[in-house]
Amino acid sequence: MLGLNFAQEMMDRHEIIAVDRGKLVSAPFTVLKQDLLDPRAEDTILDSAQPDWLINCAALADLDACENNPELAKLLNTDLPRRLARACKTRNIPFVHISTDAVFDGEKDGFYTEEDKPNPLGIYARTKLEGEWAVLTENSKALVARVNFYGWSLGGRRSLAEFFFHNLSNNKSMSGFTDVVFCPMLVNDTSRILARMVKRGLSGLYHLVGTQAMSKYQFGVEIARKFSLRESEITPKSISFSGLLARRANNLWLSTHKLSTALAEDLPDFSTGLNEFYTQNQQGYPQKIRSYAQV
Ligand SMILES: NC(=O)c1ccc[n+]([C@@H]2O[C@H](COP(=O)([O-])OP(=O)(O)OC[C@H]3O[C@@H](n4cnc5c(N)ncnc54)[C@H](OP(=O)(O)O)[C@@H]3O)[C@@H](O)[C@H]2O)c1
Q1: What is the DSSP letter of 101?
Q2: Which helix (H) or strand (E) holds 234?
C-alpha cells in the first residue's frame, strides 16, 4: 500500500523504479520483478537500478499472519531490512526503512517520543523493532520512520479506512474499537513527507504519523461523516472482545515533534488528509491504482 501510493505520488517528480513480485503488470513507472527473499536479491536490484536512494516498504505487515508464521516475519521484517541497509551502505546509497508505531505496548499515559522504550506485544511488532535495530546498527546513516497511515490500496482491503468505507457503503454494520488509540495519516502525506525527509538528509529514528490521536471507533465515525454514510452502523466496542490473534496496544499516540522540528514545518492535520482521501475517491484514484495490477 505504501509502496504503490508512494510511487503514484512521486512519479511526476522522480524516476521511480519499483520492486514487486509480479502483481504490477501495467504501472506507469518501471517495475523490476524480484522476490526479495531470493539470495542476493538486494545486489541484483541495486546493481540493475543504481538508484539515488532506496526506500524499503516491503514487510509481512499482517499482524495475525506474523503470529502464524514467525519465521517468515523474521525474514521479511528483520533480516531483509538488515540486508538492504548493508547493501546500500556498501554502495553509498541513502536508505530509508519503514517501521511501525506498534513497537510500543500502549501502557503509557500520553504520547510516545522516539526516546521512549519500546516493548512489542506480538511477533509483528517484535520483528519490526528488531528490523529497526538491525538497520541502524548496520548503517548509521539510514533513516527509519515509524508510520501509521490509511488510504486506497491495490486490493481495496489493506487499510482501516477502506474497511469502514466499503462496509458503510454496502450498508453493513461493523464494530469500531473505542479503546485503541492511534494517529492515522493519509498515505499520500506520508509519501510526500518521506521524500522531504530524504531531501533534508535526515538519518536515525523518526515518528511519522498523524498529528491527531483518536480511537479506531472515532476514525470510523470520521469516515462515515466525510462520505455522508450512516455512522450508526458502527458499534463502539472494546478490543478485549475482538478475538484477534495478535495482541494490539491500546495507546499508540506518538509525538511527531522531533520530525516537525527537523523539517521546520507543521505536519498536515487530520481533516486535510481526510478531505484528500474523499476527493481521491471522487476522482477515481482507487480504480486508477488498481488498474496497474493483476490481483
Ligand atoms: N498500514 C499501516 O498503517 C502501517 C502501520 C505501521 C507500519 N506499517 C509499515 O509500513 C510498511 C508498508 O506497509 P503496507 O501497509 O504498505 O504493507 P503491504 O501493503 O502489505 O505491503 C507490503 C509489500 O511487501 C511485499 N512483499 C512481501 N514479501 C515480499 C517478497 N518476498 N518479495 C517482494 N515483495 C514482497 C508485498 O508484496 P505482495 O503483495 O506480493 O505480497 C507487499 O507489496 C511496512 O513496513 C509496514 O510494517 C504500515
Answers
A1: G
A2: strand 234-237
User: What does the block give as the cell for 13?
Assistant: 517528480
**Backbone angles phi and psi of 32, in degrees to 5:** -95, 130
Q: CA-to-CA distance for 3 and 58, rounded, in angstroms? A: 8
State phi, psi for 218 to the nearest 5 degrees: -60, -40
Give the mean pLDDT of 196-214: 98
- Whether the per-residue pLDDT at 250 is higher than 80: the answer is yes
133/143 Cα distance (integer angstroms):
12
Which atom from ligand 1 is nearest to the alpha carbon of 128?
47
- Look up residue 274 and give its amino acid: L
DSSP-derived letter for residue 83 is H
Region 113-124: what's the mean pLDDT?
Answer: 97
d(CA 2, ligand 1 centre) in Å: 7
The CA-atom distances, in angstroms, between 125 and each of 119, 185, 227, 259 are 9, 19, 32, 22
Task: Please determine, for residue 170, whether its predicted confidence score (pLDDT) is greater than 90.
Answer: yes
Cβ atoms of 113 and 255 within 8 Å: the answer is yes
Establish whether residue 149 lines the binding site of ligand 1, counting it when its CB lies within 6 angstroms of any ligand atom.
Answer: yes
Distance (Å, whole) CA 97 – CA 147: 10
Q: What is the chain's length?
A: 295
Q: Which domains does the chain have, with CATH numbers?
A: 2-290 (3.40.50.720)
Residue 84 burial by CB count (10 A; 0-12/13-18/19+): exposed, middle or buried? Answer: buried
pLDDT of residue 295 exceeding 70? no
Structural Rg of the chain based on CA atoms: 19
Residue whose C-alpha cell reads 545486489 in the numeric block: 43
Q: What are phi and psi of 266, to 5 degrees?
A: -80, 145
d(Cα 195, Cα 13) in Å, to the nearest integer? 10
Q: Which residue is catalytic, options 112, 124, 206, 292?
A: 124
User: Does the predicted TM-score (pTM) go above 0.70?
Assistant: yes
Q: Which residue is it, cell 488498481?
A: 290
Closest residue to atom 25 of ligand 1, CA basis: 58
